[in-house]
């Protein structure tokens, strides 16, 4: 199974109240707007670990992700590029970078509604885990800052504290998420039929169907339909709802691209 970052020392005192129950949250477009890995890439560019050309590719995929939802090819492309570019970088550097990325970029993009759901589960005494394709080091920082139980994330191979450019196991995405929480359930003594899972993407059906209480958050079109067909709860925290802004999609996309390039240009000038 993927690496696990746990913050069990911070678990609420009421944990015994719902022993065996947990809530699992996807990160990108579910807990926060956009893709967390893009912000990691942008920060690495600022620290001269990536080139402008590398970040431009991430920026375009981030734009598509925000506008139309998750695409498996883009997820694997970004992850493959990131791990190759990270080869030779120290694990401590990435951990510290994750802290900076959270403070400077991620915290302002967290959906208040989703954050409130994580806190309600914690108050009820349930474990709360992030389950994401994001590198486990970054996912662990997000979980720690939100006082969650822990995080499951993609694991990059390292030797003597230096990344090799390869993965340990598979990208934590799609069916891998379902397998990951099943393995975690055995370790933590969880009854998945009494657990919750939250995601925005149809690709996360294996995660959602592994639990007894699946919930769609900011769903893409396919997941919205699936949720309605199966009478799953749907929460949409996006301002104005995507369906109400289809006519502005082209203009919005141009604005996002311009904003990303403007930000990168300002970094270059500095």
Structural class: alpha/beta
The strands making up the biggest β-sheet line up spatially as 1-4-3-2-7-8-9
Order of helices and strands: EEHHHHHEHEEEHEHEHEH
Tell me which oligomeric state these chains represent: single chain
Number of helices: 10
What is the total tally of β strands?
9
Mind summarizing the main beta sheet?
7 strands, mixed
Question: Which consecutive residue ranges, at least 5 long each, have pLDDT under 50?
Answer: 8-16, 58-67, 242-270
Shape estimate: globular
Computed CA radius of gyration, to the nearest angstrom: 18 Å
What is the arithmetic mean of pLDDT? 77
**End-to-end CA span:** 42 Å
Strand content: 15-25%
Helical residue percent? 40-55%
Textual characterization of the structure:
- The protein has 270 residues and is an alpha/beta fold.
- The chain is 48% helix and 16% strand.
- It has ten helices and nine strands.
- The strands form two sheets. It has a seven-stranded mixed β-sheet with strand order 1-4-3-2-7-8-9, with helices on both faces. It has a two-stranded antiparallel sheet with strand order 5-6.
- Helix 1 packs across helix 4 and helix 2 runs antiparallel to helix 10.
- The chain is globular.
- The C terminus is likely disordered.
Topology:
Elements: E1 4-6, E2 22-25, H1 36-46, H2 52-68, H3 72-86, H4 91-106, H5 112-123, E3 127-135, H6 136-145, E4 150-154, E5 156-159, E6 162-167, H7 175-188, E7 196-199, H8 205-208, E8 213-217, H9 221-229, E9 234-235, H10 249-269
Parallel strand pairs: 2-3, 2-7, 3-4, 7-8, 8-9
Antiparallel strand pairs: 1-4, 5-6
Helix pairs in contact: 1-2, 1-4, 2-10, 4-6
């Amino acid at each position: 199974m993927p690496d696990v970052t746990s913050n069990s020392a911070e678990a609420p005192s009421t944990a015994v109240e719902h022993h065996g129950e947990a809530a699992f949250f996807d990160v990108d477009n579910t807990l926060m707007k956009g893709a967390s890995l893009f912000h990691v890439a942008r920060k690495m560019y600022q620290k001269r670990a990536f080139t402008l050309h590398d970040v431009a590719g991430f920026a375009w995929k981030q734009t598509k992700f925000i506008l139309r939802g998750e695409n498996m090819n883009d997820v694997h492309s970004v992850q493959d590029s990131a791990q190759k570019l990270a080869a030779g970088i120290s694990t401590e550097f990435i951990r510290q970078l994750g802290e900076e990325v959270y403070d400077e970029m991620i915290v302002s993009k967290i959906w208040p509604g989703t954050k409130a759901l994580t806190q309600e589960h914690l108050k009820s005494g349930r474990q709360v885990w992030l389950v994401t394709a994001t590198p486990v080091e970054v996912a662990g920082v997000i979980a720690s800052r939100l006082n969650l139980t822990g995080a499951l994330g993609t694991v990059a191979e390292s030797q003597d504290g230096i990344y090799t450019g390869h993965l340990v196991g598979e990208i934590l995405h799609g069916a891998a998420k379902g397998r990951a929480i099943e393995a975690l359930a055995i370790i933590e003594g969880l009854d998945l039929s009494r657990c919750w899972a939250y995601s925005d993407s149809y690709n996360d059906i294996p995660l959602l169907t592994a639990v007894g209480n699946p919930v769609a958050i900011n769903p893409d079109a396919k997941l919205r339909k699936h949720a309605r067909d199966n009478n799953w709860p749907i929460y949409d925290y996006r301002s104005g709802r995507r369906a109400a802004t289809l006519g502005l999609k082209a203009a919005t996309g141009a604005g996002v691209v311009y904003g990303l390039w403007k930000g990168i240009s300002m970094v270059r000038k500095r």
